[in-house]
Amino acid sequence: MASVQVKAQLSTDDLLEAIDQLDKRNLENLLQKLLVIVARRKAPALPKNEAELIKKINQGLPQEIQQRYRMLIARRKSEALTETEYAELLKLTDQVEHLEKQRIDYLLQLAQLRHTTLNQVMEQLGIQPPDYD
């Protein structure tokens, strides 16, 4: 017997209600994925090199690193950070800075391919500078 998949149709209001319940991290993750969908629909036939750069740009920090980094920052702000956690925070900060530098390099490459500025590419992709609290 053949399997049948049924997709439920959700209204825009239902989707917005569900989205409104997401925490900040998941909301930002959803936004990045939505921006990729919008970009794909606006330009479904992006040149391969641009598509690869956009994929790299939208990769972001691995979720477990992002969670740990934010937790350590919160502990530092509340002055509850141990020496071991401080050393870990320094290491993660270096890692985050390295990943952000890579992302900026990819954005610059995309700007060069499109013969435009970094700010214009970021605006086109709906990218805002990161908020590290």
Give a short summary of the structure.
The chain is mostly helical.
Structural commentary:
The chain is mainly alpha-helical. It has one domain. It is about 70% helix and about 0% strand. The chain has six helices and no strands. It has helices at about 10-20, 25-40, 50-55, 65-75, 85-115, 120-125. The protein is flat and about 50 Å long. The termini are far apart. The model has no long low-confidence stretch (mean pLDDT about 85).
Helix count, DSSP H or I runs of 4 or more residues: 6
Number of domains: 1
Give the rounded overall mean pLDDT. Answer: 85
DSSP, total strands: 0
Beta-strand content: under 5%
Shape: flat
Q: Cα distance, first to last residue?
A: 54 Å
Give the SSE string.
Answer: HHHHHH
Q: Percent range for helical residues?
A: 55-70%
Radius of gyration: 19 Å
